[in-house]
Amino acid sequence: MMGVNGSGRQARPRREGKTVPRRFRLADKIGPRAARLVRALLVVVAILLVLPYLLAPLYRVVDPVSTLMAWRWATGARVERVWTPIERMAPALPLAVIVSEDARFCAHHGVDFAQLREVMETIDDVDDLADVRGGSTITQQIAKNLFLWQGRSFVRKALELPLALWLDLVLPKRRLMEIYLNIAEWGPNGEFGAQAAARRAFNKPARDVSLREAALLAAMLPNPARRDARAPGPALRRLAAIHEARAIASRALDACVRSAAPPSAPRRLPL
């Protein structure tokens, strides 16, 4: 029998547990087998989203490869990359790359929100943000090259931003630059990294390139398949000259990636 409360009303029976309405049950909509498949796919997607955040701290000591390099290896395409520590590269290389790609590399925390805001103000459709290179920092390019795909899309850009913030949090600036200089695509035939680029363009190791040569290499980066530092055209030479002049005028831009040097050994950039 149902009890009666003090007011004379019958007390409602207690529910042992809440049940999900049938209209919200995935298995009732698509069937149990399909529901299990959907759940498995969701688990895989969750793992793929979390995995980069787990791998990133390991790259303090592990030398990574880019997704494009891995894809070329998987498809049998040529890949030339010799990992080279940043201390074995000419100081002109990181400076020229910072001048060319991300002048505020040492100042921001992975995403240059001021620059991104300026870029967004110049476009009519937010989907066009994925096509604007000027809004991508070096750290964002590292996030894309290590964990994402190469095609342009707003989805990729949305995934790229928090990854860049995380990379900047868990990896020092010097290590980030070292990774970038070793995974960037730098030639038309599977050349990756500054060492392969310097060998191809100037037949010399990365530690021996001059500032002018480093500026030519940096000018290639937006389109290494079509821009060639080995046989630069007038447009590439003009762009490299601009980078070289800016590097000479702004030698403090790479302060966060320099190694500690004794005061008696002033830093020099070969011209």
Description of the molecule:
The chain has about 270 residues and is mainly alpha-helical. The protein has two domains: about 35 residues; about 190 residues, Penicillin binding protein transpeptidase fold (Orthogonal Bundle). Helices cover about 50% and strands about 0% of the residues. It has eleven helices and no strands. The longest helix is centred in the N-terminal third of the chain and has 24 residues. It is globular, with a radius of gyration of 26 Å. The termini are far apart. About 0% of the residues have low confidence.
Characterize this entry briefly:
By secondary structure, this protein is an all-alpha fold.
